[in-house]
What does this fold into?
Amino acid sequence: MAIQTFTAAQVLTAAQMNALQANDYNQTVSTKTASYTLVAADKGTRVVMNSASATTITVNTSLFSAGDTLVLQNIGAGVCTVTAGTATVSSAGPLAIPQNGSGVLYFTSAGVSIYYPSAVTATTSGLVCVKAETAFSAASTVTADNIFTSTYTNYLLNLTITSSSAELVLLYKNRVGGVSASTNYNAQRVTFSSTTTDAARITAQTSFRFGQAYTLSSFFTLNIASPQLAAQTNFYSNGIYNDNAATTPVAIFNTGNHSTATAYDGLEILTNTGTITGFYSVYGYSKTV
It folds into this structure.
């Protein structure tokens, strides 16, 4: 229950005493479904926010006294933010209360308060793994299905080749329903080897060429733009492979597209000849912060 006020010579009844004790073990709770401004009666109680949308709890001055406290809690999906109105609200942590989070608002004076959060708002990683690192050995083709969804627009493929059976070309194909698309790939390539630069353009291919491998290790990243949309898929890749000796690294940059306007859910990595051993992982670029 809320704090009680007594006058001189008033008799404290058993019912009142029981009610006062009850608040120590079972706080008075008021649930709000929209943004709310605290009132004096909230002192010593628990204010619970329950909204699917973002809300605020506003703190004004001259409602509370030094030493007063109240608990703020959020059970809704929308983040609730403790907001200074005419009072001051300080905190060593965030003022945002995530779902199932809470905190204590403590007043050092009528117009100054400190918020002590018990939970912080989770932040979204810039890259989210959608395909855990997966190893393969002596493979001429590697596939991953059901990884492109509407959750992310753009994706990143990391590929490490630890060894290959011969000098070979690394190729990429979009997939849908477990079937690889084998037409309408176009690419522009620039290769730097020692002091030599080589460039080439190829069109109407059965796959996108994004790298090379030799007997030593290679590493490539491939950015895949909008593969899950029924539109052209664009690519950008870069990487390094070691041409026969670790002292002769070769840099490769590729851009290109798959001009077929189809929504895809998977990918295939393959070689033009021979086999590769290594591992890969796929990440989605987060659309939120």
Q: What stands out?
A: The chain has two domains: 14-117, 127-285. The first strand starts at residue 29 and ends at 32. Residues 172 and 229 are 18 Å apart (CA to CA).
